[in-house]
TrEMBL record:
<keyword id="KW-0812">Transmembrane</keyword>
<keyword id="KW-0274">FAD</keyword>
<dbReference type="GO" id="GO:0016709">
    <property type="term" value="F:oxidoreductase activity, acting on paired donors, with incorporation or reduction of molecular oxygen, NAD(P)H as one donor, and incorporation of one atom of oxygen"/>
</dbReference>
<dbReference type="Pfam" id="PF21274">
    <property type="entry name" value="Rng_hyd_C"/>
</dbReference>
<dbReference type="InterPro" id="IPR036188">
    <property type="entry name" value="FAD/NAD-bd_sf"/>
</dbReference>
<dbReference type="GO" id="GO:0071949">
    <property type="term" value="F:FAD binding"/>
</dbReference>
<protein>
    <recommendedName>
        <fullName>FAD-binding domain-containing protein</fullName>
    </recommendedName>
</protein>
<keyword id="KW-0560">Oxidoreductase</keyword>
<keyword id="KW-0285">Flavoprotein</keyword>
<keyword id="KW-1133">Transmembrane helix</keyword>
<dbReference type="InterPro" id="IPR002938">
    <property type="entry name" value="FAD-bd"/>
</dbReference>
<dbReference type="Pfam" id="PF01494">
    <property type="entry name" value="FAD_binding_3"/>
</dbReference>
<keyword id="KW-0472">Membrane</keyword>
<dbReference type="InterPro" id="IPR050641">
    <property type="entry name" value="RIFMO-like"/>
</dbReference>
<feature type="domain" description="FAD-binding">
    <location>
        <begin position="8"/>
        <end position="362"/>
    </location>
</feature>
<feature type="transmembrane region" description="Helical">
    <location>
        <begin position="7"/>
        <end position="25"/>
    </location>
</feature>
Amino acid sequence: MAAEHQIPILIIGGGIVGLSASLFLSQHGIQSILIERHSGTSIHPRARSVNARTMELFRGLGMDDLVREAGASMKATMGIHKGKTLKEVIEAKKPADGPRKFPLAGLMNSISPVQGTFVTQDMLEPVLVDVARERGGDLRFYTECISIQQDSDSVTATLKDRETGAVSSVRAEYLIAADGAGSPIRNRLNVLTSGQGTMGHLINILFQADLKPLVHKREFSICVIESPEIYGAFTSINNDDRWVFHLAYDPSKGEQASDFTPEKCIELLRIAIGIPDLEIDVKSILPWEPSVRVADQLQHGRIFLAGDAAHQMPPWGGQGANSGITDVHNLAWKLALVLQKQASKRLLETYNAERQPVGKTAAVVSASGSDKRGMVSLNLRDPAVIVGFYKRIGLISGHGYTYASNSICPENTSPLSGLTWKPWTLASLFFLLDSRPGSRLPHLWTTHEGKRISTLDLCGQKFTLLTGAKGEAWIEAAKLISKTLAIDISTYTTGPNGDLVTENNVFETTTGISSQGAILVRPDGFVAWRARRQESGVETPQIQLELAMRRILCLL
């Protein structure tokens, strides 16, 4: 069958990750087709949290306010508790006497221009769909990928319209598999995975019940229920009448998912809530298994795994959807440069080198916050839980990792001895945000052309060169290299008289460079190269910077 449609990128999977891939590709001017087997967006809440790093990416798309609005009903969601019944736990809480703040909000203000937020998958996905379509995304729901074939030049997918039965084919230069934990594409490719596998068996019960009189001013995020009859956890959806209960069951004791009928679920929910006559409407019953499985390789020829197709993890650390979104953000700019013939195809190999270790770490750390049955662990006397919590501080925000790949230039200069270098202690310790190559560019509030913006607002579609107050030589070098390599490089000097004026003039001390130093930032906001100073007796700034750019683009 000859391909009926040709497209640069085909995305399989129309959940949060696939929709984000469509948005990021459009941001870089790359056309794509997205295929989703379901008729619409998720009807189940599933994922609930968007961390600060993901909100930075949505800010870069100009849609962070839309995301916050979608999760407005969850604004008061906070706190993890445990008890025999929800009623017992909530009534023991002191009512809040005003708006509550996230415990790490003060620290996060110095880390990022935005805060993470709560918004459930069923509320977020429609927002992503609307914006993706506004920006040219071709989204095709109720369409199934029934086969794929790839050769050295392309990937051809056979598609079936599930409403009409019509079969068609699409030929794409590359394919992103964001088709979930059970990924048919991953299975067709026989991708090897590692990890401890299934941790437990849970029933996800979405239900409607008016609990506002109980939880008003005592809103919570998670409440673990443990009693002789029940072991599970409530998660809030709107702090009013929509809730989810994750109910544990044990197949070794003869229990099966099919045992949990709507009537049985209502009976158990009333026990877990502690209100015997509560009116409950069960909306859906979804069996699932908290698992740790990570694909050993995320690139297979012209096919890339992302999101749950690449790494499965327990949800309690809030890493699943967030990790998937950062997967496709990492991949989109690389695909764009390769398709535009501005970078070598070898740049795409850095997707696996950078994202596979991050996904693996996120999965392991998320598992450390779970007990042996896959439920969120609240045993703070367990050293492993305590260590896991501190490890999660950076990951919860989406910042606690660095990249190492052929698209990152290792430093060959020593730390500055003539300067007092004072990066934020906690930022360096937990978030690794000190401008080292491979780290996310530090957030600093700056004034540019009379407007207050974050340094992160400078990144998104181009490479960005930031210099100290006396970095003119680097600026001139970047302009020449931009012409030589036919690639855009935005340039900014910092300091009182520079293009960017940082608050308290802390750019140099925060980034660890001298007034004659420079850092080069990739389109994804990660530092790719840093020159702490202009070294005497070595290559000129133009030679140094061109070598760095060629390495980053895998042209060497």
